[in-house]
Amino acid sequence: MDQDNSDWWRHGIFYQVYPRSFQDSDGDGVGDIRGIIERLPYLVELGVDAVWLSPIFPSPMADFGYDISDYTGIDPLFGTTEDFDELIAAAHDAGLKLILDLVPNHTSDQHPWFVEARSSRENAQRDWYIWRDPAPDGGPPNNWLSEFGGSAWTYDEASGQYYYHAFLAQQPDLNWRNPEVRAAIHDVMRFWLRKGVDGFRVDVIWHLIKDAEFRDNPPNPHYLEGRPPHETLLTQYSTDQPEVHAVITEMRRVTEEFDDRVLIGEVYLPLHRLIAYYGNDLRGAQMPFNFALLSTMWSARSVEKIIADYEKALPPGAWPNWVLGNHDRPRVASRVGTAQASVAAMLLLTLRGTPTLYYGDEIGMRQVPIAPNQVRDPFEKNVPDIGVGRDGCRTPMQWSAEPYAGFSTVKPWLPLARDFASDNVASLAAVPASILNLYKALIALRRMMPQLAYGNYEPVMAHGDVLLYRRRSMDGVAVIALNFGAESTAITSSAIGFSNEILLSTFMDREGEKVEGMLDLRANEGVILGPPLRPA
Ligand code: NOJ
Ligand code: MG
């Protein structure tokens, strides 16, 4: 697969590490950079190409690192600048790319920029943030709501104005209409790019620009009872403004001052809005995250439609990507069930587009129940008891049956899954047909079969619980058949179009089986079919 190197992110497989929960090296119950260094060999063995780290910068941790008080430092909880330099060198030595989280929409309220801005209305940095006078009744300037509960405006007694925060009051939004802010963040990007970082995942990129007139958001006619209160309004004026695309293009240009870097955007928007984030002439983010699989009903027809709609909507030349899990959403194994988690894995790794794995999904980690006194997530604290808490998908990686799952030598910051003694990397590695070994086999197959990485996506008509598609390139064809159902089923080979052999089953027990006439699929089974692979 000798594409030129600038293409690495197209055929690469990304893996998200939530640093607090990956590996603790210094016995404080919180994961850290040295811990990640220790575990790089695991990532190499798994076969991924790029590691994205959630924020590791100095932070009061009101939102666990998404509230940054120094963009170019390392929080002592995670280690030192030297540790980071060692990590990037070690990752590159191991052939892994390293992606950092860039959080440009807001800083911590402890960031020196905000401390300055807040100090007086006349301060030179006042306009780096979003300040407005109170409404005539003294209340907030408009009706915008914080995603983490309550008004998005907090009153600053001393200066008599409100500041805007799309998230916590401890996360004031920067004013991206101010060129000084843009220049400052560009310099932050250059700082890390110069160190050799291979790109950024940009936090809430669709939030960066707000309506110039700060008009009230309209009510959401589709609000569902029981959903978080901020969803009572549409974010028509507070997010996804047309001017944001010029801002993203500028960021893209900064990455292009260096070779072979990638810009990934976090975007939760409907498909027709999402694709705008590729930018005019593809000058936006190379990969606006495609989160469609995070919220879909898990059925063959729904997923088939998601793929078809996405493939159709992609602008010419835009490269697709797929995500099954992240640190904000319930674990995939809990959303679709343990039996279907393997089918989901096969889907993710056989679709056209760059896959991003979330740490622990490869061992089938499930949501960990969080007792009220264990809650750490500010979202759950502010908007309790409706199921928005994110702690359950951020629990420590389960490495072994040792105390604290080999994650730490002390009680971790979040509880461990109760079943960690059986469901962990060490024990699953020893079970030939485990989900972990399935992930490894899928990744290896994607690497061996360029049609899986680069081929076209061709839907094949199927019914009921079966999702069927081909991936075709000059290198050949692969057929993927996924049974989303809990009952066995059969497909005629005319539907598949040719007779071939099974290269991989999610149960890992049918490799080499010839398929002529009928393809039987067991309950919850997925298979990849293709011409017999010649040993390398
Ligand atoms: C999106 C991040 O993924 C989430 O974890 C965070 O709370 C918000 N942005 C605010 O930064
Ligand atoms: Mg630690």
From TrEMBL:
Transmembrane segments: none annotated. Keywords: Glycosidase, Hydrolase. Residues 16-394 form the Glycosyl hydrolase family 13 catalytic domain. GO terms for molecular function: alpha-amylase activity. Signal peptide: none annotated. InterPro entries: GH (IPR017853), GH13_cat_dom (IPR006047), Glyco_hydro_b (IPR013780), O16G_dom_2 (IPR045857). One of its GO terms (biological process) is oligosaccharide catabolic process. Belongs to the glycosyl hydrolase 13 family. PANTHER family: ALPHA-AMYLASE FAMILY MEMBER (PTHR10357), NEUTRAL AND BASIC AMINO ACID TRANSPORT PROTEIN RBAT (PTHR10357:SF179). This is Alpha-amylase. The lineage of its organism: Bacteria, Pseudomonadati, Pseudomonadota, Alphaproteobacteria, Hyphomicrobiales.
